[in-house]
Design goal:
By secondary structure, this protein is mainly β. The chain contains no helices and eleven strands. The strands form two sheets. Strands 2, 4, 5, 6, 9, 10 and 11 form a seven-stranded mixed sheet that branches. It has a four-stranded antiparallel sheet with strand order 1-3-8-7, with no helix packed on it. A hairpin with a 6-residue loop joins β4 and β5. It is globular.
Length: 124
């Protein structure tokens, strides 16, 4: 049974950095896609970053490219999102997600297993 448990997040001033982590168990391998999404109350969920495997096959939303980095370790299987130069508009609940498949795009409908969410607040 796949379990996805998030950690990290919190409050930071604009320009600061945070790192989110997502411990994934029960998948057996990392030859699949994992991603980060975020959501602000009243707005649609937004794809932030995605990685296939543990290499350089990554994709980012335009709004975070150059500031956020998605990485993954295989043992233990952990997904990370390193966020630098944070802006108030980055404030949201962040979710990690994983699928057994290779997702063709950064779209939540391709992901079956989700973390519980973690709040990120960036103050001006």
């Amino acid at each position: 049974r796949v379990q996805v448990v998030q950690s990290g997040g919190g409050s930071v001033q604009a320009g600061g950095s945070l790192r989110l982590a997502c411990a994934i168990s029960g998948m057996g391998n990392v030859d699949n896609s994992a991603a980060w999404f975020r959501q602000v109350p009243g707005k649609e969920r937004e794809g932030v970053a995605m990685i296939y495997g543990i290499g350089s096959d990554t994709r980012y939303a335009k709004s975070v490219k150059g500031r956020f980095t998605v990485t993954r370790d295989s043992a233990p299987h952990t997904l990370y999102l390193t966020m630098n130069d944070l802006k108030p508009e980055d404030s949201a609940v962040y979710y990690c997600a994983v699928t057994y498949r290779r997702a063709p795009r950064l779209d939540g409908s391709w992901f079956e297993y989700w973390g519980q969410g973690t709040q990120v607040i960036v103050s001006p």
